[in-house]
Amino acid sequence: MESPNNQVKTSSLVQSLVSQMNNITLNRIGKMTLENARINQIFINRGKSLAELRNQQIGQGESAIIMASGPSNKQHDPIIPIKSSGFKGALIIPESAMRYLLSNGVIPDLIVTVDPHPTRMIRWFGNPHLTEESLKNDDYYCRQDMDESFANELATNREVLKLLKKYGKQLKIAMSTSAPKAVVERALETGMEIYWWNPMLDDPDQEGSMTSELHRINELPSVNCGGNVATAAWMMAHAVLNKKHIALTGMDLSYYDGTPYRKTQYYDAMLRLADEKELSSFFTRIYNPHTESWFFTDPAYLWYREVFLEIAEEADCTTYNCTQGGILFGNNIEFIPLLQFLETHI
Amino acid sequence: MSSFLKGNFQVKKDVSKKNETETKKNLESRFEQEALKHLGGSIAFVKKKKVDWNKKI
What we know:
The complex is a heterodimer of chains A (346) and B (57).
Chain A: E1 8-9, H1 12-19, H2 21-40, E2 48-49, E3 63-67, H3 72-76, H4 79-85, E4 90-94, H5 98-103, E5 110-113, H6 132-135, H7 140-143, H8 153-167, E6 172-176, H9 181-190, E7 193-199, H10 210-218, E8 222-223, H11 229-240, E9 245-249, E10 255-256, H12 267-271, E11 284-288, E12 293-297, H13 299-314, E13 318-321, E14 333-335, H14 338-344
Helix pairs in contact in A: 1-13, 2-10
Chain B: H1 20-38, E1 51-52
């Protein structure tokens, strides 16, 4: 197929939103993060500092795989080649990928969680108090396209509860102090080994910064998350565990062409602002020359992409995007098939 | 239409016809302000930083 001349189709609205995305995010989660960190002080002694993770062997050698939960997982099922290759490096995942791995009998070396959302995050861990009634208040899991098993909400919740009962004690979690209390309690209840850290909210060297405030609360190290948990997991791999070859799977940061808007992450928020027919003004279409196909993305994901490309430039590791789809490609990222990575980095 | 409709009284205050481009810009700006309230990432990003281990650790 011949590459199209115009490989990015976006609007001035999207560009403006992306340029303000860090401030938007900080305004939304800053206070909540500080509040959660204060609440979590009562649990701090039941875990260790992230600094202690540096003294442990997390996966053999210098390679790691970050397995995010993008829609490409459904297309390519990356756990199959990872299992059959006998990959011995570190397998690091956001909490949203836990069910996928555990239901395939694979125990990740490290789970990462950072989002302070008060009600949604617990679902990735199994919510012991989930009822039909509580589901009526939020259809996020019913709509989201990360792990579609979660659309069958009560059944999947039961499955996750069961999986964590079985595997909880074998799991290590890098728990951000921003995590809501329910997530922390659930991790403790399942017997996970907790490693605490603070998310970097702003420049810690600035007078009166929120990051310094977090440090005053608990004296834990702070990690730059790059806007989202998957990038935080990548940061853990290279800046905390010192891995030099890091593959990404399920890191689409976008949706396959033809995905209904209602399956996208910010659908409910967008629908408050515009009619269904007008939602296309919020999305950007990007042509991926590696897969020779189009993807579309929302402003937050586009911001994640820009941030990742920026920090990948400064990283002292090689990043291989083995997602086999999506919009995360550019300088400092090798876009290769997962099998190729596994052949050379066992 | 304007050739049929003729004003036949004087308004007390001056009324100026809004510039269409200006109106559109205002709408876009209001829309953007609303969008800012509802969208956002999971967590913040800080330029040129990786991990701050802090001195005590």
